[in-house]
Amino acid sequence: TIGLAVAAKAAGKLYFGSATDNPELTDLPYVAGLSNASDFLQLTPGNSMKWDATEPTQGTFTFDGGEQIVQLAQKNGQLIRGHNCVWYNQLPNWVTSTSWDNATLLEVVANHCGTIVGHWAGQIWDIINEPFNDDGTWRQDVFYNVTGEAFVAAALQAARDADPDAKLYINDYNLEYGGAKAQSMANLVSSLKAQGVPVDGVGLQGHLLVGGVPGNLQSILESFTALGVEVAITELDIRMTLPVTDALLEQQKADYQSVISACKNVSGCIGVTVWDYTDKYSWVPSTFSGQGAACPWDENLIKKPAYDGIVSGFTA
Ligand code: G3I
C-alpha cells in the first residue's frame, strides 16, 4: 500500500503528520517510523513548545526541547505545527501565581507568543489552545479571568507581528460534534475577523471514540471554512474500551476512514495529525481508565487495520 502522507498528498492535502515527544526520540525503531516521510510529512511537539518548557521563568526562554524536534523534522523534510502559545495547562507557576493587572498580562502573553513564533518562524501554530468549556462558555483560566477575551487578540496579533508568514490557529477538542462549543468557536472567529485580528485556521483536535465518530463531520468542517479560515484535524486518535478485539479494530478502521474522508472532501482542510502514531506513546490509557489502543500502530509498532482505513479515506 502507499504511505499515509503519500495518500494525503494525492488527495490534495498539505500533509499527514504525527505528534511526538522528546523522551520518545531515544527509541530508535520508533524514530525510524516517525521519520518515514511517505507516512509523515509533519510533526507536532507534544510538550516541548508549551509555556512551561519555553519560558519557565519570566523573560528567560529555553528552546532546546522544541529545537530537537524541529531539527528532526528538517532532516526528514517534514513540516512543524507549533504547539502551543496560550493554554491553561502546563503553565509555569509565575504565570498562574502572580496577581496580574490586565495590561501587564496582555504584555506577557504578547511577549511569550511573539518570542516563540518569531524564534520558530515559517510554521503553522496553535496560538490559542482550548479556550472553551464543553458547554461553549469561556474557560475560566488566568488569561480569561484577568483580560476577558482580550488575550486572544493580543496573542494572535503578536504572533503575526513576529512572523507574517506563520499560520495562526485556534485549536480545541469536541468541536467535531457541532453544538454549543463549535458555535462559540465560530462566533469567536467571526468576531476576530470583523475586528481585523489575524486568524488563519481552526484546529479540531479529534480525540474521538470508536463507534462514536460524528457522521456529519464534513459539514462541521465546512461550517468553519465558510467563515474564511482553513481547518485541520490536529490531534486525531480514536480510543476504545479495552481489551482490543478484531471487531473493535474493524470499527476503528472504519472510524479513521470516516474522519479522513471528511477532511479529504473539504478543500480548506489542509491536513491531519495523529496524536502519536503508536499506542506505545498514546496519552489515552493514563487519562481514561480502561481505554486505549487509539492510534494507527499498536504498542509493538505494528500497523493496525486503522492504517488501511486512513489510506482509504484519502484515496477512496
Ligand atoms: O515534565 C514532567 C516530568 O518532569 C515529571 O517527572 C513527569 C512525572 O509525571 O511528568 C512530566 O510532565 C508530564 C508531561 O506530559 C511531559 O511529559 C505530565 O505529567 C503529563 O501530564 C503531560 O501530559 C501531556 C498532556 O498534554 C498534559 O495535559 C501529554 O504528554 C500530551 O500528549 C498532552 O497533549 C494534549 C495537547 O497538548 C492538547 N490537547 C490534548 C492533548 C492530550 O491531553
Number of helices, where a helix is a run of at least 4 consecutive DSSP H or I residues: 13
Query: Distance between the terminal alpha carbons, to the nearest Å?
Result: 13 Å
Small molecules bound:
ligand G3I
Strand fraction band? 15-25%
- The ordered string of helix (H) and strand (E) elements is HEHEHHEHHEHHEHEEHEHEHEH
How would a crystallographer describe the biggest sheet? 8 strands, parallel, barrel
Task: Please mark out the parts with pLDDT under 50 across 5 or more consecutive residues, or reply none.
Answer: none
Q: How does the overall form come out from the CA principal axes?
A: globular
Class inferred from helices and paired strands: alpha/beta
Instruction: Write out the strand line-up for the largest beta sheet, numbering strands in chain order.
Output: 1-2-3-4-5-6-8-9
| Overall average residue pLDDT | 98
Percent of residues in helices: 40-55%
Rounded to the nearest angstrom, the radius of gyration is 19 Å
Assembly form of the protein: single chain
GO cellular component, one term: extracellular region
GO molecular function: cellulose binding; endo-1,4-beta-xylanase activity
Protein name: Beta-xylanase
Enzyme class: hydrolase
Describe this structure in words.
The protein has 316 residues and is α/β, with parallel strands linked by helices. The protein contains 13 helices and 10 strands. The two termini are 13 Å apart. The model has no long low-confidence stretch (mean pLDDT 98). Ligand G3I is lined by residues 21, 46-47, 89-90, 129, 205, 235, 283.
